[in-house]
Amino acid sequence: MATMTQDRRWTRVREAIRLHQLLGDAALALGLVVFSIGMLLIDRDTGRPHQLTTSDIVALAFAVLAVIARSRFTITALIASVVATNLFLAVDHQYQPTVTAALSLLVYTYATRTDRRSAWFLTAGIAVILTVCGLLWTAAVGDSVGVLAWIGMGTAIGDATRTQRAYIEAVEERARRAEQSQDDKARLRVAQERVRIARDLHDAVAHHIAVVKVQATGAKHVLSQRPDAAATALDNISRASDAVLKEMAAVIGLLRTASDVTTGSADTDPGSGLARLPVLIDYLSSVGLRVEHRQVGDARELPPLTDLAAYQIAREALTNANKYGDGTARLTVTYAADLLAVEITNRIGDHPGRRGAGYGIVGMRERATANGGTVKAGRSGRQGFAVRFELPLTAQSAAK
């Protein structure tokens, strides 16, 4: 935690320097002047104080200008510093420490802005020029070695700084991409959740609205001749309306907060599974659909999502049978070793002009595919319709 805080602090410092580069360079030049004056006032041979010469003052002025210009005119200031170093060497037969310090700083700046090969190639060229000029103008060998060491140190520090900055930028970019990826995943989960809720609403509402439509149509036909049958149909409509309101309330209750969605929690309605088939069959029987229920194999506990998907697909198929069939249907549930198979068959009733939108079958296939299963729906024989879906019961499906 302390390291992250320190990195953020240095990042803010670097940003402040970038925004006020000229002021930073001026402050650096002022520090160089103070440091250089301290060195120039002490004789390098005797260690005693001595007065500044004209060359010292000119060197100070040049160093200040070179350092201030280093950010915007790095190459120009660097070339000028090399030329100035050789000029002072030709006149005074020794290196000016102020210009040497400025040259080292400029080499550092160049190394932070280019690749390693270019930086060291330029440093080698400057070293060759200064060495040759030092031999021509009789500079002390020790002084030449010292100047070359300062230039080499500036290049090494600049290269290390550039590498560190590149590493920090790469880490920040990876963190930004990771955060963006998490945001994208969260948005995808939200979209998937909305699709699931829309599908649940369709299943819940369409099932009961289909019952209401069937009963309302029947009541219309028998109202004048058989009022008692019409009253029964109206009672069924009332029960279906109550049921759809309850179903909608349950589905809306599945809406999660944003944090639940982004963390991927997958709570499901524990009461919606194949265990509710008898309740569903009783309800459908009360509204006019007789369902023959048959089970093959021993019932066992299923993975929650598989159990929920199986119930909802069966409910949708039975709703279609009630809406488009002749009032009877057969439901067969088969528990195999690694497979759950459910088949719903019914005879097609005489409903001229009645045609579904097709969303029910689409929803069945989506639910089955999401759980690694398949759905087959279509005509069976001349007057029949069958829906058969299979859901795997492997460890992989249970882990979903």
UniProtKB/TrEMBL annotation:
Stretches assigned to the Signal transduction histidine kinase subgroup 3 dimerisation and phosphoacceptor domain: 193-258
Superkingdom, natural source: Bacteria
Name of this protein: histidine kinase
The reaction(s) this protein catalyses: ATP + protein L-histidine = ADP + protein N-phospho-L-histidine
Pfam families: HisKA_3
Enzyme type, top EC level: transferase
Keywords associated with the record: ATP-binding, Kinase, Membrane, Nucleotide-binding, Phosphoprotein, Transferase, Transmembrane, Transmembrane helix, Two-component regulatory system
InterPro entries recorded: HATPase_C_sf, Sensor_HK_TwoCompSys, Sig_transdc_His_kin_sub3_dim/P
Record's GO cellular component terms: membrane
Transmembrane segments: 21-42, 48-68, 119-140
Gene Ontology MF terms in the entry: ATP binding; phosphorelay sensor kinase activity; protein dimerization activity
UniProt-listed Enzyme Commission number(s): 2.7.13.3
PANTHER family in alphabetical order: NITRATE/NITRITE SENSOR PROTEIN NARX-RELATED, NITRATE_NITRITE SENSOR PROTEIN NARQ
